[in-house]
UniProtKB/TrEMBL annotation:
Domain (Exonuclease) ranges: 65-248
Superkingdom of origin: Eukaryota
Stored InterPro entries: 3-5_Exoribonuclease (IPR051274), ERI-1_3'hExo-like (IPR047201), Ribonucl_H (IPR013520), RNaseH-like_sf (IPR012337), RNaseH_sf (IPR036397)
Protein name, as recorded: ERI1 exoribonuclease 3
One MF annotation (Gene Ontology) recorded for this entry: 3'-5'-RNA exonuclease activity
Pfam families according to UniProt: RNase_T (PF00929)
Signal peptide range in chain numbering: none
Length: 256
């Protein structure tokens, strides 16, 4: 004889769940019941990832978007140019949930002081004809800001950060050229992630460049090395591969 009919409904519910939790043939039920408990859950848990659009297997990130950037600039063999000028300006907008490309900004830039040398063309694939008639950098920066607005990247609730292969692009190249021409540098260019440092955190090996990172991760190189837009696509692959190792990216560089 049982006395279940005398128990209040909430005790009956507890008794039923308790028996399910410890039933030897219902081991999988444990995770279900714990997931329904009132204990706080990590925002990177599978259930949270599914509801938020976070891709399973990728750690929750502090940024909504990663902006992969890789400038190409004027260069002469065995000579240091002053100023060195950006001649290709590519940026990929990468989702912080899926790590897929959502949008692209890309333009060639006509230099104002030094032209394109044969050495530069051999290295980057960029010819004099490719930059002739293209906007100068000050115009490109204005167009880029319009793109940032259009993509919702400057909204208060949106967190984004640039990703570079090394610190040269945003610590040296852009501030150096803008300083020479006395152009302002937008505040969003003053913080970034150096993918080499992130790679070293994950693997324990500090890479010399992009190609060793791709090789280490078993990723096929795409396009032409030292083409800005192609390098961005390969850096984006490295970014995703590190995210799939559940790495949570943090800023590594800043100009104040």
């Amino acid at each position: 004889m049982t006395y279940q009919h005398l128990l209040p409904p909430f005790l009956l519910l507890f008794k039923r769940n308790f028996s399910q939790l410890y039933h030897p043939r219902r081991k999988a039920r444990v995770n279900v019941l714990l997931a329904k408990s009132s204990y706080p859950r990590s925002s990177s848990s599978p259930s949270m990832a599914a509801s938020s659009g976070q891709q399973p297997g990728i750690a929750f990130q502090d940024f909504h978007y990663f902006l992969v950037l890789d400038f190409e600039a004027t260069c002469w063999e065995n000579e240091k140019l002053k100023p060195q000028e950006i001649i290709e300006f590519p940026v990929l907008k990468i989702s912080g949930k899926t790590f897929e490309v959502e949008s692209e900004f890309h333009t060639y830039v006509e230099p104002q002081v030094h032209g394109i040398s044969e050495f530069c063309t051999e290295l980057t694939g960029i010819t004099k004809d490719m930059v002739a008639g293209q906007p100068h950098l000050d115009e490109v920066l204005k167009t880029f800001n319009i793109w940032m607005v259009k993509e919702g990247l400057l909204e208060n609730q949106t967190k984004s950060i640039f990703v570079t292969c090394g610190d040269w692009d945003l610590r040296t190249m852009l501030p150096g050229q803008c300083g020479y021409f006395k152009w302002p540098v937008a505040s969003y260019f003053t913080q970034w992630i150096n993918i080499k440092k992130a790679f070293a955190r994950v693997t324990g090996v500090y890479p010399k460049g992009m190609m060793p990172m791709l090789e280490h991760l078993g990723i096929q190189h795409e396009g032409r090395h030292h083409s800005g837009i192609d390098d961005c696509k390969n850096i984006a692959k490295i970014l995703k591969a590190l995210a799939e190792k559940r790495f949570r990216f943090q800023p590594t560089g800043a100009n104040r």
